[in-house]
Amino acid sequence: MEQAKLMVFPQQDSLLFQLSGSWMLQTGVPGADESLRQLRSGTAIRRVAFDASEMRGWDSGLLTWLLALADYCNTHAIDIDSSGLPDGVVRLLALACAVPPREGAQRSVRKKSLISDIGNDTLDAARITGEFMRFFGESVLSLLNLLRGRAVYRRSDLWLIIQDAGVRALPIVSLVSFLVGLILAFVGAIQLQNFGAGIYVADLVGIAMTREMAAIMTGIIMAGRTGAAYAAELGSMSVNEEIDALQTCGFSAMEFLVLPRMLALMLMMPLLAVYADLMGILGGAVVAVAILDLTWLEYFIQVTKAVSLADFSVGIFMSMVFGIIVAVIGCLNGIKCGRNSQAVGMATTSAVVSAIVMIVIASAVLTVIFDVLGI
Amino acid sequence: MMTAATAHITVRNLTMAYGDFLIQRDLNFTIDRGDIFIIMGGSGCGKSTLMRHLVGLKAPRTGQVLYGGQSYWESDAAQQRRLKRCFGVMYQSGALWSAMTLTENIALPLEQYTDLTAQQIRRVASLKLALVGLRGFEDFYPAEISGGMQKRAGIARAMALDPEILFFDEPSAGLDPVSAKNLDDLILELRESLGTTMVIVTHELASIFAIGNNSVFLDPETKTMITTGNPHTLLKECANPKVRAFLTRGAA
User: What is the set of domains in chain A, with CATH numbers?
Assistant: First the structure.
């Protein structure tokens, strides 16, 4: 195709643009800046005209050039004589100029300094903490409502959510906790063997799994698996105005959406943690039997001697706390999600990251408390 | 600009189904170059599904969709891409990418398919927005503008590459009568000026008669098309009670 060409003929008080070739985006069109410069340099130009008799084809390429020209002419009181242009071009140009640019709609991007960024982040952190506390408070109130039998939610939803947070999580919980038990035993076995105390691997794995590791590992797994799912699900519901729809139908989003999820995780996390205890201890047993030449029976007797009911209860309690953390943070991020698809992604990320951070902090705090209490 | 009518899109013995669920069967119609073609029919008859078949989002169960004689579903990937470049699609609710500004929405196909510089792309994007009456909203995010404006921005994005065929899924649904009329005028104007073939899914009677010059009528009960042709002619001549009821709002 023939390249677009532009010739400019200055006449007394006007400019004549002669267009030839094909003015298509594909083949490239002359930039508007050059033409604008010619308009500016020519003194006292009152009129621009066009001759397109040699033009072979056009599309948006021509129109963008013309629009830039027309904008300049309109602001500088220069007449546009469009009689030399094809009909379609004239009409589209008129259409493009029909609605004037909206005043004040243009955005100016303000540069931010590091200090204002830090300030904003600090304010955000304070706001988010406040939001979390309020949300947590509301969810506790909805729990109380549930106990009074007044909470409105769908039973069938609750069962589905329980199923998803419980049985469906078993495979990954099995794998991770089995391997964690195995790793603990492996690391311990190498050290303990030096002292001829290989049998204490059972104590190490048993106590570590039941008190801490099972709860923390299931917590982190559920944060990535279920907390993220809650944030994404509730987030897209808020994008689609489904949460607004629930509220206008008189349902409380808190009771209808958050409560079942919180209940499900509160009930399922301890069960998963018990299961993770067993799998971890089993993982340890494999190492004990394979490397330390212990028998299965010796190992399990040693574990039952080492692990007290208190250790076990501490782990169960922690896992329930983690369940609440994962559910509340996941749901909070989902419900507070912005109204676009990117916001859903951000809500999900934030749900997982803050849930994991909170789990680690909570476990540290709880460990210190239990230590002080001597449990 | 337009010469005598030549077939642009030909649909031959098209059968559409989701799994075992039959949507429509034995569709046969032709859309000429420069036509404003209306896909009409009652709710749930498969209008939007037909459009998904025409734009290459869903493969037909049997039958062919031909663009200027070339069968879309029998072409290789490179040819399909070339054909797709000639389509512009406006989705029902705009389907603008919400994480991008209006300019970025329009710029994305341009960046992908043309060698223009960043500044030229910005100019083209501004032009397209100007054509749909959205000058000055270049740096707005879709969530910050009203539903009607989102629809128009959706049209601007569909037009980004100067497509030969523009598809509209319910363009006037949810618009006030004046905006709907303006949208119809815009569609007519684009057809007149650029010679674009328009395929429109709609059941707005006012639009159908104001802009359509060819159409197909789908029937959800018999799961096939009843008739095809100019809506005005159909109103005058078609004897089928379903079509008459549709075109006269149940009066006849």
Answer: 5-98 (3.30.750.24), 139-373 (no CATH)
